[in-house]
TrEMBL record:
<keyword id="KW-0503">Monooxygenase</keyword>
<protein>
    <submittedName>
        <fullName>Cytochrome P450</fullName>
    </submittedName>
</protein>
<keyword id="KW-0479">Metal-binding</keyword>
<keyword id="KW-0408">Iron</keyword>
<dbReference type="Pfam" id="PF00067">
    <property type="entry name" value="p450"/>
</dbReference>
<comment type="similarity">
    <text>Belongs to the cytochrome P450 family.</text>
</comment>
<dbReference type="InterPro" id="IPR036396">
    <property type="entry name" value="Cyt_P450_sf"/>
</dbReference>
<dbReference type="InterPro" id="IPR001128">
    <property type="entry name" value="Cyt_P450"/>
</dbReference>
<dbReference type="InterPro" id="IPR002397">
    <property type="entry name" value="Cyt_P450_B"/>
</dbReference>
<dbReference type="InterPro" id="IPR017972">
    <property type="entry name" value="Cyt_P450_CS"/>
</dbReference>
<keyword id="KW-0560">Oxidoreductase</keyword>
<keyword id="KW-0349">Heme</keyword>
Amino acid sequence: MADIVESREVSALLRELTTAAGREDPYGHYMRLREIGAVVRADDGTLIVTRFAECAAVARDHKLGKMPVELLAHAGLADWAEHPALYGYFTSLLGINPPDHTRLRRLVSSSFTARRVQALRPATERMVDDLIDAMGDSCDFVPAFAFPLPCNVISELLGIPPEDRAQFQHLVSDWSAVLDDITPEVLSKANPAAKAVREYLAALATERRRRPREDLMSALVGHEEAGDRLTEDELLTMAGLLFAAGFETTTNLLSNGLVALLGHPEQLPDMIGDPASAVQELLRYDSPVQNIDRTALEPTTIAGVHFEPGDRIVAYTGSANRDPRRFTDPDRLDLRRPDNASLSFGGGMHYCLGAPMARLEAELAFPRLFERMPGLHLRDGARRRESLTIRGFDVLPVGS
Ligand code: HEM
């Protein structure tokens, strides 16, 4: 059996990662953690993996799963079901294990298809152009572009009318704060927001049952497969999840990607030449989601380390993406990198359901931004998000 490394250096590195400096640039700390060992233990007992092979194994191992409901009490969340913000998360795909996960994922996958995503292309192109039109000479890129684009695209997908979208953006933002950190303060805003989102989606579902359209909500309410269908509760949780999981992450892909591109202007022609490969590399280089967590459901072994049921494991996928064991010269942005499949969308059964949609948005947005705003540049005053899990910016001033 291999050793789990516990040391003062590990504790110090993990602590530093949560400081403003660590969040600004976690990659040096990740490098040191990867060198120290395949599996390290944090002060609170959590086991942490930072190398590519081990992170991929954590994502794919079926004996690891989402924290079962009975363990939530140990995490101080015994009353989770009474908080609308937590209920919507822990009962969604992101919070459950097979067989429930398998069933729900099958029901949504057959409606949220690649064809449906591709059908959003013309509307997404229009939204990109409209947002660029409104950007002016200088603005904060986050509220002007990176935030509304994904929100509008998911709204379009689900069938939320344009006039309701702005209000919806803010509600979902307050709600999805629980994906970062669950504190009483976060919950005091997240709970009413989650409740309002659910009520709105319930009214939309009722409307689409009466008069179906071409949107995903109509597909979900009408969908039946092998005699099975989503219950009303599952439907509302699923529709809410598409927002919660989908739009801040994509917002941060757009912001992190813009910063990376503006830092490497010599590579802009490669972005315009092959946006799909470029976006893949931007996702690897500075991922909007830096880690995923699992709990051992059965005994299992990863990197020669034995995991017992109940062990909590965090895989630092943001570090895996910079592992020299997997990528040549990993700290270099190379939009033409040939073998750049990363762990930014996770892996295994929870692999991101919205990956094709996030990719489509970024592939359309970046070439158009640089084509229409050749003088686009960063201005002073950028502020990072206060989170290590969701990496991105709260404020990102730009000029053109
Ligand atoms: C760049 C943007 C995005 C990133 C980096 C991202 C990342 C991720 C990651 C890492 C996971 C796996 C979590 C885990 O294993 O615990 C995940 C799951 C998920 N994502 Fe995304 N995501 C993005 C955009 C989206 C979009 C646009 C949508 C929906 C419209 C979406 C919907 C989901 C859903 C529903 C899941 C749960 C899948 C499951 O558990 O079976 N994501 N995402």
